[in-house]
Amino acid sequence: MSKLPHIGTSIFSTMSHMANEHNAINLSQGFPNFPVDNRLKNLVAHWSSQEIHQYLPMAGFPPLLEKIAILTQKSYGRSVHPNTEVLITAGATEGIFATLQALVHPKEEVIILDPSYDCYETPILLGNAIPKRIPLKDDFTPNWELIGNTLNANTKMIIINNPHNPSGRIWSEHDFTQLEQLVTLYPNLLILADEVYEYITFEQKHRSINQREQLKNRSIIVSSFGKSFHITGWKIGYLIAPEPLMNEIKKVHQFLVFSVNSMAQYALNDYMELVNVNELGAFYQHKRDFFRSLLHETPLELLPSEGSYFQVASYASLSKENDLDFTKRLVTEYGVAAVPLSPFYADNKQTQCIRFCFAKEDHTLQEAAKRLRNL
């Protein structure tokens, strides 16, 4: 008997499969299609010939942990201890899974803000805890009245995602102050902050939990080398958390993967001395602006994209179809794959919105827009 009877193939796999089957341009799955930095590839080539292929320490390669601590200090002004408050994970997803398994007990509640990434709910269910799915407002900002009404003494954790996937919205100062007011009412509440797109923001700079004195000591912050350095297939990320929480997470992490790919850690340790993460926002803002300018020539209505490499668009003026049918027709009739938003909601809410990934070569975006102009 299945432990996850309602879980099927992810919408990302479904749409990518359809894109391949129909030779469509794949703007559905969130991965870049442009080359990785040659400096990073050269580092991998160098380290592949060295004798560094055995297990590294469970928490991560110590020099890389130091580099993360330095980056956190430079980016957010937060001092973290590399040996006790940082953990290298096998991608952000493993970090999220280990955190939820370690810190949430059976029957405790975890708040998820929908539309939400599909890896949040499963570890909660596997731990016999209770996911409480709360919709964001129609503009994809937090509904603090609804969140406040849902919190109770049995709520163990709230998961936040900023910058947000799938909407591309980012949190305002008001959102953080609202969260700070709520945690004062619930002193045992923990925060799992998914910040994997932290270095991909545009007009407004990213606000991180790392910068919030009232929140950081009860928070687990998730970051991703895969997202920041265009290496999603490496599946490597990291967590930052206060030592008492991190000790519990490490107990689970060591029996999930023990340690993370050694060659990747050596290469990233060197690469972090060469790369400036603060240039990422400008790079992706060019992509966003270019893609939006192309889509203005289509009948789609573009919603705000403040961070991440996603653009949400409404097709409400074109069709009354549900979003899954519309995206399937987009593949079969127009040769472009996008992702419907309804699978990101617990109740499959219909917003008549779809998500495009613009982390693609310019010519890919141009060809996709050319096809979308035929809508």
Protein architecture, described:
The chain is an alpha/beta fold and 375 residues long. It folds into two domains: 11-30 and 278-372, Aspartate Aminotransferase, domain 1 (Alpha-Beta Complex); 39-271, Aspartate Aminotransferase, domain 2, CATH 3.40.640.10. The chain contains 13 helices and 13 strands. The chain has helices at 11-21, 38-48, 62-76, 91-103, 121-126, 144-150, 173-185, 225-228, 243-256, 262-271, 280-295, 323-334, 362-372; strands spanning 25-26, 86-89, 109-114, 130-135, 155-161, 190-194, 219-224, 237-240, 301-302, 310-314, 336-337, 339-340, 353-357. The strands form three sheets. Strands 2-8-7-6-5-3-4 form a seven-stranded mixed β-sheet, sandwiched between helices. A hairpin with a 7-residue loop joins strand 9 (301-302) and strand 10 (310-314). InterPro entries: Aminotransferase_I/II_large, Kynurenine-oxoglutarate_AT, PyrdxlP-dep_Trfase, PyrdxlP-dep_Trfase_major, PyrdxlP-dep_Trfase_small. Its cofactor is pyridoxal 5'-phosphate. Residues 24-372 form the Aminotransferase class I/classII large domain. Keywords: Aminotransferase, Pyridoxal phosphate, Transferase.
Give the secondary structure arrangement, pairings included.
Blueprint: H1 11-21, E1 25-26, H2 38-48, H3 62-76, E2 86-89, H4 91-103, E3 109-114, H5 121-126, E4 130-135, H6 144-150, E5 155-161, H7 173-185, E6 190-194, E7 219-224, H8 225-228, E8 237-240, H9 243-256, H10 262-271, H11 280-295, E9 301-302, E10 310-314, H12 323-334, E11 336-337, E12 339-340, E13 353-357, H13 362-372
Helix pairs in contact: 2-10, 4-9, 11-13
